[in-house]
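Before relying on records like the one below, remember that each one covers exactly one chain. Contacts with other chains, cofactors or solvent are not represented anywhere in the record.
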Amino acid sequence: MNSSRPLRLVTDAAEPVDRAPSAAVERNLLVRAAQRGDVRAFASLVDAYYARCLRFALHMLASRGDAEEAVQDTFVRVYRALPSYVERESFEPWLFRILANRCRTAGARERRRAEFVEFGEVPDRPSEGRHDDSIAWREEIELALAALPTEQREAFLMRHVEDLSYEDMSIATGAGISALKMRVKRACDFLRLRLTEDDDARGR
């Protein structure tokens, strides 16, 4: 494996939300305004987080349609739950907790659908011969992520793609920090081994 090659995941999204203090203050103001029924404030929250939520869902789910549906459902649920929301300093993990739950539900639905699909069929996957090296590498990462157990994939994405702290991840998942650290470690170990094997098999 080319050790100099960075582990880059498909983003298909804008840069993460700025976490500077001024951005946090603005976010909290938007949350409070949205709680009071300000539709424009809620739309601004959606604009701020939609790309990141979609990126997370795309890595959690095999179907883009299912990912988009999970994100849309997440924001519907966020809007309905805002009047009772009190964790203003923890809006981001609260949002990702709802999103992760929707992804788990959609993932279970995907698995049920897969029972009716012929084993070995991979829909919409172009042949490797039609891809350059960078696209083929991205596909390898996507396949490796998909092979992770759901809890490990979820923890890895929250920590290393969405850059959530372990404290926020604990709020989002309900799991303890020690358990989350172990999930991330196991995910990293698996991805490193899987991608090394893929590279060796291709003689890179």
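The chain has two domains: 11-120, 129-204.
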